[in-house]
Amino acid sequence: MSKTKYIFVTGGVASSLGKGIISASLGKLLQARGYKVTNQKLDPYINIDPGTLNPYEHGECYVTVDGHEADLDLGHYERFLNVQTHKSNNITSGRIYQNVILRERRGDFLGKTVQVIPHITDEIIRNIKQLGTNNQFDFVITEIGGTVGDIESLPYIESVRQMLWTMPKNCCCIHLTYVPYLAAAGELKTKPTQHSVKELQQEGVQPDILVLRTEHPINKEIRKKVALFCNVDFDAVIESADVETIYEVPLRMQKEGLDKVVLRKLGVPDDKPADMESWNAFLDKLNNAKKEVKIGLVGKYVKLPDVYKSITESLIHASAYNDRKLNLKLILSEDITDDNADKILGEMDGILIAPGFGERGVEGKISAVKYARENNVPCLGISLGMQCMVIEFARNVLGLKGAHSTEIDPGTPHKVIDTMEAQKTMLQKGGNMRLGAYNCNIKDNTLAKTIYGKETISERHRHRFEFNNEYKTLYEENGIVCSGINPETNLVEIIELPKHKWFIGVQFHPEYSSTVLNPHPLFINFVKAAIEE
Ligand code: GLN
């Protein structure tokens, strides 16, 4: 395509309507027509990134290959489109303001008063258009976080308005709203949608397409009414009904003609239908699995499943791959002790020890590891989960009493998990987190080698603490194999226990790179072990 097209996705009426999934689904449909597509998320909060946010505030913190701590919607984009995102795919108000203020200090504005309009909006537009430089992409789909009418999102909507006005042929706006069903009246109500479109119009933006989230089918009359009152074409009123799985959404959107309307609005010929064959093949497996696999996910955030989004989705991909339905039990690590572990974990086919930070629930994770190790239950430890495997082995096999991670017990007599010397000096600078993709060499004749089938892999990290190499020989003499090693730093990235049915700990986060079309081999193999008799 000659020029990059920009599609904006805004939301109204309520939050959590699934803008991320709609954006990813549209991305998928356009990609399946042969276009190069990228998805971007603009977050109106002031934090520079979600790295420091409590997971209960904002769900999982996703990590891109280039080491950016990002909104979890980027995970949806990668899982749906099977392409990597980067720092430029997620922008927050914090970053926008930081850039503008830095430039102001540098004197870039030549004595001018620095204002939201034009300086903040210019910076927002620059960040959107940056993805369109050098014709890297045919379509840039930019999702605006929050709901229309929020004070915080005003500069973003204004930026959308300016882009729609200055590049009308290359931009369009999709607005996602909610159509509630009033049981007492037995009716779907469109007034909130009308109000939310009015709000958007007041801010100068006329949406081209409306996507209506609903729990009940939207009939022709309602579509006509919404189209007429909101100035959109009849076929640009798209129903987004509740579905069993998010992976159904691209097909629903295709059926509703979302991609067709988008192409028409942007003047792109609708000449090649979206090829969703491989997607459908995945969905078939997902929907037709008869038997289930029961996985216990041991973590400290069980009230909000979004905290473990990527892990859950990776398990769903891997289960479908193995023709199994995932039965996932979120288990609060604080509830587990050595004495009750068999009661809580006894029915699980596999146990996954979740990543995490801080002390809460760590002893429960260690007890869960002990149970899995002693009872030969397939067990995957991710990041803190791997560290708990290391600690458990030290205490219960190596006889190192009080062994711990210095993150939790700085005074432990056996620092089996510790920060490295180089990091200690960086600590003062605050830049001591290992973030993003690192290479890892895999040892021959190990389970890891069988799983990955190659010498060198690259996986994403997000942690401060590491396996302490001073203890490596002792672990290896007692049955642990350090099967993955960072070639530059010699740090241990994968451990396994060959005597066990399936016991692997990884310092990195494989869950960030499992996609619908490329389920992650570690998860595939973990589920496979879990269902083996
Ligand atoms: N808290 C641990 C560390 O910082 C593990 C982090 C994680 O699980 N991602 O090393």
Question: Would you spell out the secondary-structure blueprint of this structure?
Answer:
Elements: E1 5-11, H1 19-31, E2 37-43, H2 55-58, E3 62-63, E4 69-70, H3 73-81, E5 90-92, H4 93-106, H5 116-129, E6 139-144, H6 154-166, E7 171-178, E8 181-182, E9 187-188, H7 191-202, E10 209-214, H8 220-230, E11 237-241, H9 249-256, H10 258-265, H11 277-288, E12 292-299, H12 309-321, E13 325-332, H13 341-345, E14 350-353, H14 362-374, E15 379-382, H15 384-396, E16 404-405, E17 415-418, H16 421-427, E18 434-442, H17 447-452, E19 456-463, E20 466-467, H18 472-477, E21 481-485, E22 492-496, E23 503-506, H19 521-531
Parallel strand pairs: 1-6, 1-7, 2-5, 2-6, 7-10, 10-11, 12-13, 12-14, 14-15, 15-23, 16-17
Antiparallel strand pairs: 3-4, 8-9, 17-20, 18-19, 18-21, 21-22, 22-23
Helix pairs in contact: 1-3, 1-9, 4-5, 5-6, 11-12, 12-19, 14-15
Bound molecules: glutamine.
Bound molecules: glutamine
DSSP strand content: 15-25%
Helix content: 25-40%
User: Would you tell me the overall average pLDDT?
Assistant: 95
Task: Please report the total strand number as a whole number.
Answer: 23
What is the overall number of helices? 19
Distance between the termini: 53 Å
Sheet with the most strands: spatial strand order: 13-12-14-15-23-22-21-18-19
Mass-distribution shape: globular
* Major sheet size, sense and barrel closure: 9 strands, mixed
Low-pLDDT windows of residues:
none
Radius of gyration: 25 Å
How does this model look, in words?
The protein is an alpha/beta fold. Helices cover 36% and strands 21% of the residues. The chain is built from 19 helices and 23 strands. The strands form five sheets. A nine-stranded mixed sheet has the order 13-12-14-15-23-22-21-18-19, with helices on both faces. A seven-stranded parallel sheet has the order 5-2-6-1-7-10-11, sandwiched between helices. A three-stranded mixed sheet has the order 16-17-20, with helices on one face. Helix 1 crosses helix 9. The longest helix is centred in the first third of the chain and has 14 residues, at 93-106. It is globular and about 75 Å long. It starts with a strand and ends with a helix. The mean pLDDT is 95. Glutamine is lined by residues 355-357, 383-384, 407, 462-465.
